[in-house]
Amino acid sequence: MKYQIRLAGDEGRLAREIKVRSGVDLAKCYQCGECTAGCPMTPEMDAGPTKVLRLVQLGMEQELFRLNTPWLCASCETCTSRCPNEIDIALVMDVIRQMARLRGLEPPVREPRVFQDVFLKSVHDYGKLYEPGLIAFYNLKSRHLFKDVGLGPRMLLKGKLPLLPHRSGNLAKLREIMAKAKAHEEELGRKVEERAHGGGGHGHGPEGH
After folding, report:
1. Which terminus of the chain is more exposed, N or C, with fewer CB under 10 A?
2. Contact of 31 with 5, CB cutoff 8 Å
3. Tell me: the pLDDT tens digits for 125-137?
4. How far, in Å, CA of 111 to CA of 92, rounded?
5. Side-chain half-sphere of 197: how many Cα atoms within 13 Å?
6. Tens of pLDDT along 71-114?
7. CA 71, CA 80: separation in Å to the nearest integer?
8. d(CA 7, CA 60)
């Protein structure tokens, strides 16, 4: 016997938005718990991946964005590989982080967002990572001013860190790719407005046995 939870209107909006942005249909999740059982970060999370997917299914947006779970996800894809319905849970976590940022929400943990910002800025500016700059800006913005400060000079002396940044020879091409990615994100935002908010009659929810 099959059971299906049908969510329409505002309740299904969150699941529809994630489907538009990721192509992942979370109606396939029947809460078996395999993802949470295999996740190495679960002890540090407010809730395991299973609960995150359930909150999406139920349209509980405020509760979802209060969790630190998406921000602590290591993108190791253990959850994805364990899912019997082949749901790309790691991608969903990435999309939830993206949605939080687009909504202007402050993450419950500062460090992952700070690292993402300084990492992308380094790649945009130089076409590759400039490790000393990344470390300095990360420590400053994360307010861990003296984290690993003793390692820098030793690594510089051993030639493990460059003193000055070196730009990639394909920097212009890389910036073009990043601009296209931003344009694609804006296009997805328009699709979300058109489809996620306008598909009130469709069922969204898990099927199980």
Report:
1. N
2. no
3. 999 888 888 888 8
4. 20
5. 6
6. 999 999 999 999 999 999 999 999 999 999 889 898 898 888 88
7. 17
8. 12
User: How would you classify the pairing of strands 3-4 and 207-208?
Assistant: antiparallel
Q: How far apart are CA 84 and CA 74, in angstroms?
A: 20
Structure-block tokens of residue 140: 């400053």
Q: Evaluate if pTM is beyond 0.90.
A: no
Q: Six-digit token pair at 183?
A: 């344009």
Structure tokens at 52: 């995150």
Distances (CA, A) of 37 to 33, 60, 78, 83, 156: 6, 23, 10, 11, 41
- 122 Cα distance to chain centroid: 19
- CA 57/CA 168 separation, integer angstroms: 43
Question: Residue 208: enclosing H or E segment and its boundaries?
Answer: strand 207-208
- Counting Cβ atoms within 10 Å, is residue 198 exposed (0-12), middle (13-18) or buried (19+)? exposed
Helix (H, G, I), strand (E, B) or coil at 39: coil
Contact by Cβ (8 Å): 59, 35: no
User: CA-to-CA distance for 137 and 117, rounded, in angstroms?
Assistant: 10
What domains appear along the chain, each with residue ranges and CATH number?
Answer: 3-105+199-204 (1.10.1060.10), 110-184 (no CATH)
What integer pLDDT is reported at residue 168 of this predicted model?
Answer: 86
Structure tokens at 25: 């249909």
Report the candidate in 38, 36, 64 with the shortest Cα–Cα distance to residue 50.
Answer: 36
